[in-house]
Design a protein that fits this description.
Number of helices: 2
Radius of gyration: 13 Å
Largest sheet: 5 strands, antiparallel
Number of strands: 7
Strand order of the largest sheet: 1-7-6-3-2
Strand content: 35-45%
Shape: globular
Distance between the termini: 17 Å
Order of helices and strands: EHEEEEEEH
Helix content: 25-40%
């Protein structure tokens, strides 16, 4: 897409469960595809009061001891917004472990 992206490897033993919860949660209003081990969520470029050049893509990969989250966006502001939304939702689903460690790179 472009160079507006960030990746976080979040330590958890429940990566698959959180991945599936997140994908199911957004599947009713966004384009989502997922299995137990990987998922993709498209955040529309028209987001509330903002409009971006392209959709943002969140890619999730469940690992044995971590959940890898990658966000690709068309602008820095979109990237920061999507990162925050994903992190807050994952913390909500992982309330027993929250706050999760998001070390975005």
């Amino acid at each position: 897409m472009n160079n507006h992206y960030a990746v976080a490897l979040i330590p958890t033993l429940s990566a698959s469960r959180y991945l599936q919860q997140l994908c199911k949660h957004w599947s009713h209003k966004m384009t989502v595809s997922f299995t137990a081990d990987q998922g993709t969520i498209l955040f529309p470029k028209e987001e509330r009061s903002e409009s971006f050049a392209a959709d943002a893509t969140v890619t999730l990969q469940a690992r044995e001891e971590a959940l890898e989250v990658r966000v690709n966006a068309s602008a820095d502001r979109q990237l920061e917004t999507v990162k925050a939304v994903v992190a807050s939702h994952l913390d909500r689903f992982a309330f027993r472990e929250a706050p999760l460690a998001f070390d975005w790179r």
